[in-house]
Amino acid sequence: GINWRWPATGALISGYVAGDQTRQGINIAGKAGDPVRSAADGEVVYSGNGLIGYGELIIVKHNSSMLSAYGHNRRRLVQEGDPVKAGQQIGEMGSSSASRDMLHFEIRANGKPVDPLTYLPRQ
User: Fold this and answer.
1) Phi then psi dihedrals of residue 107, to 5 deg
2) Which of 34, 42, 112, 123 could make an SS bond with 93 (beta carbons 3.0 to 4.6 A apart)?
3) What span, in angstroms and rounded, lies between the C-alpha atoms of 67 and 106?
């Protein structure tokens, strides 16, 4: 199994809502420049800003079926193909494509969004 950890240290602003296209992950509060960390070991499979609504986005592949996504970064610190370790800083929190500084975090299983709170350790 994957040993998940929280990707940022701020308060939970909003949670996952199954079937709601605008709530496919969780939002974690913070300030511009706060570290965004990989939630588990993996490889960066996307680092860019080509997906509308996510701003500066990083996607990490953890195994054949699990991905995690980190949106609204101010800065991306990793490139596609980079290996990352759980807890490694991969970006800086920001507000690209968002109304405030925060991290939008998603976990996808077999391409489908799942509730990250069922995977992350209790705070």
Assistant:
1) -120, 135
2) 34
3) 8
